[in-house]
């Protein structure tokens, strides 16, 4: 496991380096200048570019940026004068993280419940309704769900507030918007794996020993059925914890997603780079944690790592 962990960390570092490099040169290929404004003359724009080193060659700018990055400095925002990229991320990340964590928990709990209900229900009508609901949920993009929820429950019925994240009530609509699709996916995965696990020999043996149905389902079957779900929740958590651009923009939530959209529109190179590095690091870290957690929970995964190690 130690060898595997080191390999994954190395691959993650290389992936992050490639991501930073590609993003850096793509930002320099964007048309226009971060300091272009209808009220600013061309001479002032050139002077600002000279001040921030944007008149240098892209290769020289890249070397300067990577040197500062290795020193732990992400730079200052070009549009928010005097504000560091670190402070912008520090203010936006907790907002997005709280929203993403709530959506992940909602999807995991609701999806597991719906999947088990569909698997154990003996009523055909219930199974058909749950199956149809799963297909419907998986087919609705989060921005469409956000608009529908906003119009129905926010504007028409006025049950929930529609902007910001100030109270628990503000979380309801954006969390539901983000969790529609993952809930449907988790429900389908749990249904398939739960039904398959219930047919295995260890379940028959547990029943022969006199264990109750729900005892077997909760303490044995569900544990194994959740392994594929964990593999899915890893990338999902990374995505939701780093921001959903559309949902944050629709509900005017001051999170990472809105900051990233704003930075691209304003050609704020340093903020684009800082957000990319932060989001890339979170994605790599969460995926690594998920893989190690799956290996800890499932002996078969640990054994496969050992076989690969000895095979090397």
UniProtKB/TrEMBL annotation:
Pfam families registered for this protein in UniProt: BPD_transp_1
Top-level division of the source organism's lineage: Bacteria
Q: Which UniProt keywords apply?
A: Cell membrane, Membrane, Transmembrane, Transmembrane helix, Transport
Where does the record say this protein resides?
Cell membrane
Q: Is Cell membrane found in the keyword set?
A: yes
Q: Which InterPro entries match?
A: MetI-like, MetI-like_sf
Q: How does it sit in the membrane?
A: Multi-pass membrane protein
Instruction: Output the Gene Ontology cellular-component terms.
Output: plasma membrane
Give the stretches traversing the membrane.
Answer: 9-27, 95-117, 129-157, 169-191, 236-257, 269-289
**Domain spans labelled ABC transmembrane type-1:** 93-290
One BP term from GO: transmembrane transport
Q: Which SUPFAM superfamilies match?
A: MetI-like
Matches recorded under Gene3D superfamilies: MetI-like (1.10.3720.10)
Which residues are in coiled coils? none
What the record says about family reads: Belongs to the binding-protein-dependent transport system permease family.
This protein's name: ABC transporter permease
Its lineage reads: Bacteria, Bacillati, Bacillota, Clostridia, Lachnospirales
